[in-house]
Amino acid sequence: MLGKIEHLGIAVKDLKQANDLYTKLLGRQPYKQEAVESEHVITSFFTAGENKIELLAATSDDSAIAKHIEKRGTGIHHVAYAVENIHAEMQRLESEGFTLINKEPKKGADNKLVAFIHPKSTNGVLVELCQEIQE
Prior knowledge:
The protein contains 3 helices and 8 strands, in the order βαβββαβαβββ. By secondary structure, the chain is α+β, with helices and mostly antiparallel strands. An 8-stranded mixed sheet has the order 2-3-4-1-5-8-7-6. Keywords: Isomerase, Metal-binding.
């Protein structure tokens, strides 16, 4: 089952400008900035109460974030949900008729295994599943 909303992902063109804006908006600095080479993005994470905001800036013109911004502009990119067992949740969702973008989870930002559900099967919302990596 899907757990709490783990974070909201927001696509941005200029990470420095967006960091400055969200620092003013939320009244705090980002707690982490991290490159995710496999996705060609740099992420920046903020807390907002018990919630998290992930800013995503493309490092390549052919990244999913660059393509998203080109088609839809900046703004909310995805909603991420925490899961305890990402493999089991992926199987459950696929059996319910959802289309998975990833057939296997991959390492994402903020020490998570991640997988995405195609927005065509979720009323236009890109959904990310996130499982904390236990080390």
